[in-house]
Specification:
Layout lengths: L6 H4 L10 H13 L13 H20 L1 H24 L2 H14 L5 H13 L2 E3 L4 H10 L4 E4 H16 L10 H17 L3 E4 L3 H11 L2 E3 L1 H10 L8 H16 L10 H15 L10 H11 L1 H4 L5
Length: about 300
């Protein structure tokens, strides 16, 4: 079990990429507040946050261990299905397959690279701001980030494990609009895991990569929520003026460019944060600070995924 006493020595055993977003927020907050894992001095004034973080972290790690065996079974099952599918494809008449391939190539009208870049840019611009990105899109984004990078067998297995867990818990359903993409990701990773050595470089086909990039850009976390989470990591801390000024200026630019508007559901919280940062930067306060009741409200928002129970 990981506790406050052994956290600094156990930090290397925690796979940051596999953590849920809320635990990542807690992880980042402790990393910053402990000055790169050297002291608890600046975090001791918030024992409730630490208690919740360690409780949820240990629950998550325990669940990961229990599902490790299930993930191995899932690898074998999907591998067997993929093998059967490949054998069926091999039995198809060659002439018909070639004819189908030619027809497919003829009907396709590949776009030039500049056009693809424009399309990707348009998709990115049109992204919908949401409080929580769909689970399927999160996995698609994660898959896209694997491209052109090297990974070990345990890292690939963790991805398969996390995906299988999401499917088992019905956070990803067969009726999902992206069910086909999720199945593709699962099959590709399982196939890769079965054939790889200790390390493998992931390469996603260009057309698949373009398609998944467009899907991944379809949703993004609300900017106001991101600002709130960043402020929490600064609250009550000294010697964070550079980070405070950066956040303050980014919030100001976002308002000027109307990326955050008066209709934002967290408008009042953003105003509190903005005023708090301004007071700190101008020397009115020694740290970025707001009233405890308001701070609790911000933490509740930032850590809502930790407190929420998954529904089957």
């Amino acid at each position: 079990m990981i506790t406050k006493k052994n956290y600094f020595s156990q930090i290397s055993s925690i796979d940051y990429k596999s953590l849920p977003d809320a635990l990542k927020e807690g992880f980042d907050t402790i990393k910053f507040g402990s000055k790169e894992y050297t002291t608890w001095e600046y975090l001791d004034d918030d024992p409730e946050f630490l208690d919740v973080y360690f409780e949820k972290l240990n629950a998550f790690l325990d669940k990961e261990k229990k599902t490790e065996t299930k993930a191995e079974k899932a690898v074998k099952k999907v591998s067997k299905t993929a093998k059967s599918k490949t054998e069926k494809e091999a039995k198809k008449p060659v002439a018909k397959k070639e004819k189908a391939d030619k027809k497919k190539k003829k009907s396709a009208s590949p776009k030039s690279k500049p056009e693809k870049k424009k399309q990707a840019k348009a998709e990115k611009t049109a992204a919908i701001s949401v409080e929580k990105v769909q689970e399927e899109i999160r996995f698609i984004k994660r898959y896209v980030l694997l491209h052109d990078r090297e990974y070990t067998r345990p890292q690939i297995l963790r991805f398969i494990n996390a995906l299988q867990k999401a499917i088992t818990e019905k956070r990803i359903r067969k009726t999902s609009a992206y069910a086909e993409e999720i199945i593709h990701i699962q099959e590709q990773l399982v196939n890769c895991y079965n054939k790889m050595g200790e390390v493998v470089k992931i390469e996603i086909k260009e057309d698949t990569l373009d398609k998944f990039i467009n899907i991944a850009g379809g949703e993004k976390t609300m900017m106001s929520v991101l600002f709130i989470k960043r402020y929490i990591s600064l609250h009550g801390k000294t010697n964070v003026k550079v980070k405070a000024e950066r956040l303050f200026n980014q919030m100001k630019r976002a308002a000027d460019k109307k990326k955050v508007t008066s209709s934002d559901p967290y408008k009042e919280k953003l105003e509190l944060i903005y005023n708090s940062l301004n007071d700190y930067i101008t020397g009115k306060t020694e740290t970025p600070v707001i009233q405890k009741a308001e701070l609790n409200g911000l933490k509740e928002l930032a850590l809502m995924k930790l407190f929420s129970k998954k529904k089957a």
